[in-house]
Design brief:
Elements (H helix, E strand, L loop, with lengths): L1 E5 L7 H9 L2 E4 L13 E6 L2 E6 L2 E2 L11 E2 L4 H14 L5 H11 L7 H15 L5 E4 L11 H12 L3 E4 L9 H6 L3 E4 L20 H7 L2 H9 L5
Helix pairs in contact: 1-8, 2-3, 3-4, 3-7
Length: about 230
């Protein structure tokens, strides 16, 4: 069984979905320290041809709290501003209507936790692309208490009976293939292909939120783009 483990990000970039396309099961890993200016509550889109952050505001966030504990700011006005920002930026995009609907579904007023919104954004896009991956929450039972980093990941692999662990390219500096091999787990990495596509910008801007990809490409084409990052 092919497994991936990752923090939930808010409408993450294409490479995140290459990771989903590579595995059978994907575990949302949110029982880890909150990092300021990370990707859990924000991502980049194009507004007027320039990059701008699409952000879910949070409160009482800091290194003493886990991603799962951080709550969304009480001011409900940010949703309206977010929807208006995206509508202004992408209303002429060929797939604006269904993709704007995904955004609205991901940030319901009744949801107090930003992690849940990030997870919802990933689940909604995975469903929109019809990716055959099982998305599950971190059950908080992996390994021994206090384990972090590679040991925690290997604990997940053991509990999930994984034969292969997949990660984004940034994980190459974190994980030792021999250590995984000794545990009976193959260590693999996706290689995201950020190929140009039509955008509302003078020059192509790679690595934006998946929202930008979906606004300009059909679900079938966007899935093909995600799968292109999975090595044979």
């Amino acid at each position: 069984m092919k497994l991936a483990l990752m923090q939930p990000y808010f409408f993450p970039y294409l490479g995140y979905f290459s990771l989903l396309a590579a595995v059978d099961r994907f575990v949302f890993y949110d029982e880890v320290q909150w990092i300021k200016n990370g990707w859990v509550n924000r991502n980049r889109v194009l507004v007027g041809g320039a990059t701008s952050y699409l952000t879910v505001p949070v409160r009482d966030a800091g290194p003493s709290r886990t991603i799962a504990e951080v709550e969304v700011a009480k001011d409900a006005g940010w949703r309206r501003k977010m929807f208006e920002m995206v509508r202004h930026a992408y209303r002429k995009a060929p797939y604006f209507a269904p993709v704007h609907d995904l955004l609205q579904q991901a940030v319901p007023e009744a949801q107090p936790h930003v992690s849940a919104m990030a997870k919802a954004s990933v689940r909604l896009v995975a469903g929109y692309l019809a990716l055959p991956v099982e998305l599950v929450d971190d059950p908080g039972r992996q390994g021994e208490p206090g384990l972090i980093g590679p040991e925690r990941v290997l604990g997940v692999c053991r509990d999930e009976k994984a034969t292969a662990y997949w990660n984004l390219p940034g994980g190459k500096a974190l994980y030792d293939a021999e250590r995984f091999q000794a545990a009976g787990v193959a260590l693999r990495f996706v290689e995201p292909v950020l190929e140009p596509y039509p955008q509302f910008a003078a020059a192509f801007v790679p690595g934006l939120s998946m929202l930008d990809v979906l606004m300009h490409n059909s679900p079938q084409e966007a899935r093909r783009m995600a799968e292109a990052g999975v090595p044979a």
